[in-house]
């Protein structure tokens, strides 16, 4: 049982991720030292879809029955708010689709780099984007003499919410040549994964060494010993000597299925409510993979979740090559024309492009009266944390 835990806005018992934040988040805010980004995210998740953020009430003019709906926090780390954001993102990406096969490529940082990444998230995540996408663009130029399209999405978690930075990339199976012709690669082969991994390793470590020599890296906590140049040099040599893991796979289905497939990754956060099994004061149980379960104390659950809060204004979804913003109206349009991509009939047939049904104005209870909507003013449930 969960003691002193507020019920969900509809009066139901605690069952999901939102209830975990409401039950244990306020105490965690008072008793733990958090970064400004982490504290802000946790307050948003506590307040999401509660009276704290306000909302509206629909009132029937005939039977007088009411329905309250509270506003969402719209935080990009909130597992409750990502569904609508994901649908809007997918709708926009359909405009930039090219009708060719695509590949799913995952770039993973070695475990030895995780302490450095924790202490230098903005720098290391930026290097991860830069090294991975430059690798794919360079291989596209050397193997095809063409420019591919790349969408990259940053993830930092495992199924147990451990810290595991990696980059998901969707890459077009070919590219646009300088003479505006399309060069297609083999249907089931992008580039040799060993070549991808070796080039990615070299580019990332070159960037990391440059950041170290420029004094852009901080070493605290588990990475404190790396402030010694000899220790950092030892780490660098060991990283050069090991094979870096790169995974490449062709997604199934046609071009529009690629967008749906990518949508599974773009707005995903560390955990969703569908994985929560039980919530109690002494432990939270959630599904990991298959029939496996993980049990964590509420404080450890929140600590792991907050590990994945991104730096302020850091963009976790980026586009390169043909999909780069500078190429959208020029080279991307040429590629779409060549491949007959994104025609309007296909877009109408796509279930992803369907708009949401309009809000019903007739009372669903008595089916006689009409609903009128009244505003509910925000009422904070958790006061902002005082500055230290």
What's the gyration radius in Å? 24 Å
Structural class from helices and strands?
Answer: alpha+beta
* Helix share bin: 25-40%
Q: In the residues, how many domains can be counted?
A: 2
Q: Unreliable segments (pLDDT under 50, ≥5 consecutive)?
A: 341-358, 382-388
- Strand percentage lies at 15-25%
Side-by-side strand order of the widest sheet:
9-3-6-5-13
Biggest pleated-sheet summary: 5 strands, antiparallel
> Roughly how many Å apart are the termini?
34 Å
| Count of strand segments | 14
Shape field: globular
State the helix count: 11
Give the ordered list of helices and strands: HHEEHEHHEEEEEHHEHEEEHEHHE
Mean pLDDT equals 86
Structural features, described:
- This protein folds into two domains: 1-80 and 296-307 and 359-388, no CATH class; 83-270 and 312-353, no CATH class.
- The chain has eleven helices and 14 strands.
- It has helices at residues 17-31, 36-47, 82-93, 114-119, 121-144, 193-213, 229-241, 255-266, 298-306, 331-339, 344-349, and strands spanning 55-60, 66-70, 102-108, 146-147, 149-157, 163-172, 174-177, 182-184, 246-249, 276-280, 283-287, 293-296, 317-321, 371-376.
- The chain has a five-stranded antiparallel beta sheet with strand order 9-3-6-5-13, sandwiched between helices.
- β1 and β2 form a beta hairpin.
- The protein is globular and about 70 Å long.
